[in-house]
């Protein structure tokens, strides 16, 4: 009668009473092992089943060899003990060696298949990632930096979150002043006493607090207003502030600087003109217009047939502002200006809707590589 699990029985139960019987029994166990291991797959994915198979034979508690040690060796009669012990050692050595060989085969197969999987095929075409371009606002900023750098202005940046003091009061715009109306802004609910700056002018004050004249700076950055979006307005837009203060700065320097800028930016034939305006922090204040770069001044759609394009507000720094920064108003004078960068870019590149800058439509962006 064939016995399924002879290792769970004792030699007496198996009817083995002499050395020949022991040898025959171990030989059957070896055949059983050899059969099992030869039918196991050598696939790399078989590492898991290799472990199960190893435990089945070598497991400390219920492995077949442990059972043989417990049931055959320990229970063997003194006459058979020696031959059982010897045969068990041989079987163990055979099982361990075969399992080790199998493990190596599986590992090699696994390394080979990983190698095949990861092989780099240098003849394959590469993945081309389309390159983006700088946004037109960034390009315009770079153009502005180039122009103002070339006449000695340096670039400083300020924070977008400001206090009402720097955004208004120190610029001579006290509370309840009507000039605050068109600069209504966003106040930060979680940080009382702070707002999103409505213009880059607060950096005028901060820079003058920091250093004595000469000052010659431009300040780029985002600004915020409670303006409804339309073709020329956005609640977030970009400005470039300019400030020059020194002992001998006159209105002529002011006009000359702006003229130089307009000619560099729009073309050498550009003329500028001034119209009276009002800003609490400049006195006198002016709006600068440039002759239309499209029609040269004869009148077209871009300039609404006036021949002139409104550029930006500016003026000589109001001595009242010097009072906030401890500058001697008798000794120093200067000028300041604030450009709307989005509007300048619209003018220069013939864009009729300011919203196009912020919609991220690649068909628009690609036109300005
Ligand atoms: C100012 O912001 C002043 N700080 C400028 C200044 C600086 C004057 C220094 C004197 C001395 P104004 O509110 O006009 O001024 O805004 C300046 C420019 O920002 C405008 O000429 C316009 O080009 C642009 N601008 C204003 N509001 C918007 C808006 N909602 N969307 C897009 N651009 C705007």
Measure the end-to-end span. Answer: 89 Å
Mean pLDDT across the residues is 89
- Residues in β-strands, percent: 15-25%
Task: Write down the Rg.
Answer: 44 Å
Largest beta sheet: what is the strand line-up? Answer: 1-4-5-9-8-7-6
**Helix tally?**
12
Category by helix and strand content: alpha+beta
Percentage of residues in helical conformation: 40-55%
Task: Write structural notes for this entry.
The protein is α+β, with helices and mostly antiparallel strands. It is 41% helix and 17% strand. The protein contains 12 helices and 9 strands. The protein has helices at residues 11-14, 19-39, 47-58, 64-73, 78-118, 136-149, 164-167, 202-210, 251-266, 319-325, 341-349, 362-365, and strands spanning 154-155, 161-162, 195-196, 215-224, 236-246, 272-279, 282-291, 308-317, 333-340. The protein has a 7-stranded mixed β-sheet with strand order 1-4-5-9-8-7-6, sandwiched between helices. Strand 6 (272-279) and strand 7 (282-291) form a beta hairpin. Helix 4 packs antiparallel against helix 5 and helix 8 (202-210) packs across helix 10. It is rod-shaped. The termini are far apart. The model has no long low-confidence stretch (mean pLDDT 89). Bound molecules: adenosine-5'-[phenylalaninyl-phosphate]. Adenosine-5'-[phenylalaninyl-phosphate] (FA5) is lined by residues 199, 201, 225, 227, 233-234, 237, 239, 241, 279, 282, 312-315, 336-338, 340, 342-343, 354.
């Amino acid at each position: 009668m064939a016995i399924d699990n002879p290792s769970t029985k004792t030699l007496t139960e198996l009817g083995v009473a002499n050395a020949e019987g022991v040898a025959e029994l171990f030989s059957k166990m070896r055949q059983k092992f050899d059969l099992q291991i030869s039918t196991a797959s050598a696939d790399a994915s078989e590492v898991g089943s290799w472990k199960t198979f190893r435990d089945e034979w070598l497991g400390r508690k219920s492995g077949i060899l442990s059972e043989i040690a417990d049931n055959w060796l320990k229970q063997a009669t003194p006459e058979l003990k020696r031959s059982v012990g010897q045969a068990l050692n041989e079987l163990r050595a055979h099982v361990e060696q075969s399992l080790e060989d199998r493990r190596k085969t599986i590992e090699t197969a696994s390394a080979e298949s990983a190698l095949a999987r990861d092989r780099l095929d240098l003849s394959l075409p590469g993945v081309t990632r389309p390159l983006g371009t700088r946004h037109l606002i960034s390009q315009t900023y770079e153009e502005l930096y180039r122009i103002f750098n070339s006449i000695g202005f340096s670039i400083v940046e300020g924070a977008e979150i400001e206090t009402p003091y720097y955004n208004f009061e120190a610029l001579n715009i006290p509370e309840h002043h009507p000039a605050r109306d068109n600069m209504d802004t966003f106040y930060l609910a979680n940080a009382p006493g702070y707002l999103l700056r409505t213009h880059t002018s607060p950096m005028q004050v901060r820079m003058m607090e920091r250093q004595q004249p000469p000052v010659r700076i431009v300040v780029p950055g985002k600004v915020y207003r409670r303006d409804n979006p339309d073709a020329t307005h956005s609640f977030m837009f970009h400005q470039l502030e300019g400030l020059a203060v020194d002992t001998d700065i006159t209105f002529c320097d002011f006009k000359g600087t702006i003229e130089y800028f307009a000619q560099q930016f729009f073309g050498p034939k550009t003329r500028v003109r001034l119209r009276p305006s009002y800003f609490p922090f400049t006195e006198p204040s002016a709006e600068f217009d440039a002759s239309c770069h499209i029609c040269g001044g004869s009148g077209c759609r871009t300039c609404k047939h006036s021949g002139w394009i409104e550029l930006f507000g500016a003026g000589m720094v109001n001595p009242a502002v010097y009072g906030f920064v401890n500058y001697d108003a008798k000794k120093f004078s200067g000028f300041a200006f604030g450009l709307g960068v989005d509007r300048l870019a619209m003018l220069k590149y013939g864009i009729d809707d300011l919203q196009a800058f912020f919609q991220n439509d690649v068909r628009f962006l690609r036109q300005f590589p």
